[in-house]
Amino acid sequence: MNDLRPRAALFRYPEPLARWVARREMTLQEAHRRLHHWCVRLAPVRHLTERYEFLKFVLAERIKQEEVRCELVAHRIRQAVRPLLAGSTPSNALLALAHGVNGENGLTLPEAEVTAIVRDMVYWSLPPASPGRRRHAR
Fold this sequence. Notes:
By secondary structure, the protein is mainly alpha-helical. It has one domain (about 5-125). Helices cover about 70% and strands about 0% of the residues. The protein contains 6 helices and no strands. Helix 2 packs across helix 4, helix 4 (about 50-85) packs antiparallel against helix 5 (about 90-105) and helix 5 (about 90-105) packs across helix 6.
């Protein structure tokens, strides 16, 4: 009975690591190091290698899931902001909408990344330079 609690904690640990790796807040090597340290603390010695290899697999799958979630939220932000680019909507309203969409989806993307998405969309929505100008208006 005492062995059930550490094992359950052991299998929940890759979730936050995957979120941090997908958001680029931690490197994959650091996540593997922390996973190994956690596995050494909680897994019995006879099962250490098998559990560590399995948890590395779980971590890789969770990272893929988190990356897909990030791409999906970025797409939703672009869909929400795109109709407002045609009008003269202020940039702070665009940013508020984008951050609202990110918040509705569980704050999947960091604030800087949401801002970069909106800034990139505004940049590409600008008209090109007039023929007499040397530099591009964007």
